[in-house]
Amino acid sequence: MSEIITAKNLTKSYGDRVAVDHIDLTVAAGEFYGFLGPNGAGKTTTIRMLTGIIEPDEGDVSVGGYPSNDKGSIASVIGVVPEGRGFYEWMTAVEYLEFFADLYGMNPDEKKKRIDSLLEKVGLDARRNSRVGTYSRGMKQRLALARALVHQPKILFLDEPTLGLDPQGQEDIQRLLKDLNKEGITVFLSSHLLNEVSNLCSRIVILHGGRIVANGTLEQLRAKTSLQSGSLTDIFLHLTRTL
Ligand SMILES: Nc1ncnc2c1ncn2[C@@H]1O[C@H](COP(=O)(O)OP(=O)(O)OP(=O)(O)O)[C@@H](O)[C@H]1O
Ligand SMILES: [Mg+2]
């Protein structure tokens, strides 16, 4: 499989604090990539550098075959569900998705078809004309996913998309992500739900203190930590123990 995301020597500091410390990563096209780490490990900072929201202090990034300075091309092939997103709560779901479709310059026919199919896909068709402010948290997350998919990206970045969702809400997002990955979309998922990650991800990377401390399949992480029958939680705690 070919590489669709690469980062070499990626580094970012905030004042004296090194948030991301010279990391290398590679994601293959079609992969379901799990990006883990304790609070403050540097996950969001890494995702922001990969998606062009912030500039690294050092290092090179390539996404979808484009270098980091080709932000327009990168934006056309990635969809992002960011951490702690806000909504235009006064808009309806349709208005919200139209707003983003217009930003991508979609023509009216294409826009209508795409929005209808996305609302259907994320189960919001019946509430398409309700204001986003009246949505539950789970519905908002599904709308955030629909928004990230408006322009049919090849790569999807998600920063804790199931945070604060009930089990049904988590399951809804997980099922959608699984289907999208089966359709060929590369998924880059950051999550603290280790069951979610072990069920979905074909590769798992653990970040700790801005550095990568593990990279592989669950089986490979088990072998590396000598926790042969360990769960991902056991492995995670073993590798990120601070006390
Ligand atoms: N804008 C900022 N200004 C100053 N420090 C920041 C900023 N963003 C992140 N940091 C610091 O960088 C480090 C990494 O933060 P980051 O948000 O990337 O972690 P994270 O792995 O996403 O954590 P969480 O699981 O809590 O979301 C932390 O020490 C954090 O305090
Ligand atoms: Mg974060």
Write the topology of this structure.
Elements: E1 3-14, E2 17-28, E3 32-36, H1 43-50, E4 58-63, E5 66-67, H2 71-77, E6 78-81, H3 93-103, H4 108-121, H5 137-149, E7 155-159, H6 167-182, E8 186-190, H7 194-200, E9 203-208, E10 211-216, H8 218-225, H9 232-240
Parallel strand pairs: 3-8, 3-9, 6-7, 7-8
Antiparallel strand pairs: 1-2, 1-4, 4-5, 9-10
Helix pairs in contact: 3-4, 5-6, 8-9
The structure holds adenosine-5'-triphosphate and magnesium ion (MG).
Could you name the key traits of this structure?
alpha/beta; single chain; six-stranded mixed sheet; Rossmann fold; 9 helices; four-stranded antiparallel sheet; binds adenosine-5'-triphosphate; binds magnesium ion; 10 strands; 243 residues; 38% helix
Provide a descriptive summary of the structure in words.
The protein is 38% helix and 26% strand. The chain has a six-stranded mixed sheet with strand order 6-7-8-3-9-10, with helices on both faces. Strands 2-1-4-5 form a four-stranded antiparallel sheet, covered by helices on one side. The protein has 243 residues and is an alpha/beta fold. It has helices at 43-50, 71-77, 93-103, 108-121, 137-149, 167-182, 194-200, 218-225, 232-240, and strands at 3-14, 17-28, 32-36, 58-63, 66-67, 78-81, 155-159, 186-190, 203-208, 211-216. The protein is globular. Strand 7 (155-159), helix 6 and strand 8 (186-190) form a beta-alpha-beta unit. Bound molecules: adenosine-5'-triphosphate and magnesium ion. Magnesium ion (MG) binds at residues 43-44, 83, 159. Magnesium ion (MG) binds next to helix 1.
